[in-house]
Amino acid sequence: MESTDKLTDTNAILAYLYETFPLCFIAEGETKPLKIGLFQDLAERLADDSKVSKTQLRVALRRYTSSWRYLKSVKAGAQRVDLDGQPCGELEQEHIDHAQAMLKESQEKAKAKRAAQAPKAAPAGKAPAKKAPKKVAVPARKTGRPVKAAPKIESAPTVNLVQAQLTDLAKKQRVNVKLGMTPVAGVITDINKEDIHVQLDSGLTVKVKAEHILL
After folding, report:
1. Could you list the residue range(s) of the whole structural domain that residue 194 is in?
2. Regarding predicted confidence, which is higher, 169 or 64?
3. Closest CA to 60 of 76, 42, 82
4. What are the helix (H) ranges across the chain?
5. 170 and 112 in one domain?
6. What is the CATH number of the domain that holds 50?
7. CA–CA separation, 210 and 17 (whole Å)
């Protein structure tokens, strides 16, 4: 009987890989470059494990190998390792160059994003002008009781989403759809060739391509 505790969250799958293959997947600190074709070894080793699917394994592996700490480990003299931590040969220079280019691009994007979100600095020698707090009139209730301020709604934590490939997707899978500036969560209801039908949490059903889906 298939287990009902199938893992679907990418972070949970990564934690499972850290625990199952600790000599290959490193949870903290410097990582090790992975063997070329490791996904096939991983899929075969976990073929009878009902906790994870090939689709989710592929997403988790992509998240792991695109992290800064992994890209920093792809350097001259480093040895690739298999699932048991056994050396599988040194890295080729083209792979090192590709990893460093990806790392630089990712860091530059993060830097630009931080700069865009940072408040603009005031000109030298001038202190930033303080804005007077706006006074908001709150109408009193007929009962004479003070009106309570509405509770603050905390923004959701930032999630590092990656663009999905068509082969990553399956029916009943929870995904995020790029609609405007903010991804919207939903569940895949049908896949018809390149058209993916997603029922959003709002109840609306949309038809999109895989390039508009984030995992």
Report:
1. 166-214
2. 64
3. 42
4. 10-20, 38-45, 54-65, 68-73, 93-117
5. no
6. 1.10.1710.10
7. 26
For residue 167, give both structure tokens.
Answer: 């082969």
Which residue type occupies 5? D
Write the CATH number for 199: 2.30.30.140
Q: What is the pLDDT of residues 150-200, one digit of tens each?
A: 555 444 444 567 887 778 888 888 988 887 667 888 889 988 888 888 888
In 3D space, the residue among 30, 112, 122 whose CA is nearest the CA of residue 71 turns out to be 30
Q: How confident is the model at residue 44 (pLDDT cuts 50, 70, 90)?
A: very high
Nearest to 164 by CA among 112, 108, 209: 209
Q: Does any domain span residue 125?
A: no
> How many domains does the chain divide into?
2
Q: Using an 8 Å Cβ cutoff, are 55 and 42 in contact?
A: no
% of the chain beyond a pLDDT of 70: 78
